[in-house]
Structures are given as structure tokens and as C-alpha cells.
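Issue 218. Parser rejects a valid record. Input:
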Amino acid sequence: MIKRTLYFGNPVYLSLKNEQLVIQLPEVEKNDSLSESFKRDAVKTIPIEDVGVIVLDNKRITITQGLLEKLLNFNVAVVSCDSSHLPIGLMLPMVGNHTQTERYRKQIAVSLPLKKQLWQQTIQAKILNQAKLLESLHQCEVGNMRKWATVVRSGDPDNYEARAAVYY
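Output the parser choked on:
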């Protein structure tokens, strides 16, 4: 399953309840003119096991220690940004990530023919993306690049990647 990336760029309260990430907006919490039912409906929850990365990009974000502990237990990366909205810190679990280690082992154990086929697909996609950019941004002729993408062989022994890079 693909994990979600959550970005928080506004003030928010982040906490934990029933193994769920609870999201509350301080503007709603503190607004006395809103009904209690509206305030309850404004609280959102997300299962922690669905989250892969959380980006914190506001100085007025409040996050509880209990939530941080649970996020790290589920191997969620927590990224903190500075006032220029650039990442300044990354929090990852200290215990070994068994899932990631197993993925690395499987990737290393892949047969050479499969590695070459995957490289072929990567090069084809790269050449086609370069061709699309040249065509859309600069109205260049890219027929040769499209042709190169179709004739890339396993492992790219003819070095079409380099030819396309030079043309690009």
C-alpha cells in the first residue's frame, strides 16, 4: 500500500487518539461563535498506519509526544521546516526498520537480467520525459528521441541515455 504524505502549513494541533492521528485547527477550537457540533465535525482523524511522511511547515504547530512516539513506531518520517519553508530536520526511528531492510535484501538479490530490464525501462522513461519537456517548452523536434526510447535494449549497451542527454 502507498503511504500518505501529510503537509501542514497552517497552525494545527496534532495528537493521538485510538491509534489515529487527530487533526484540530486552533481557529475552530478558539472560536466561540461556532457550534459544538461544528467543532466536533472539524476534527479529522487519519490512521497512522496509512502515513509515510509528515511535513511540519509552520511555527505554530503543536504535536504531542504520544503522537511522535506512535509515528516513529510506525516508521513515519517527520520533517520539520524553517521559516524559509525549507527542511531543517528529519526525525526517524532509531530501531532497525525490518521492512526496509527486507526490501534492500530483495533488491540486492534481484537477478542481473531483471536489473538490466529495469534499467532499460528507466532509460526509456527518462528519454521520453526529456522529449516531452523539449517539445512542450521549446517546441523542438524530438522524433529522434522518441525513436531512441523505442530501441533502448536491456542494460542500454548502445548508450542511448548519453545520446539523449547530449541532445537534451
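Fixed in the parser; the record now loads. The chain has a mean pLDDT of 89.
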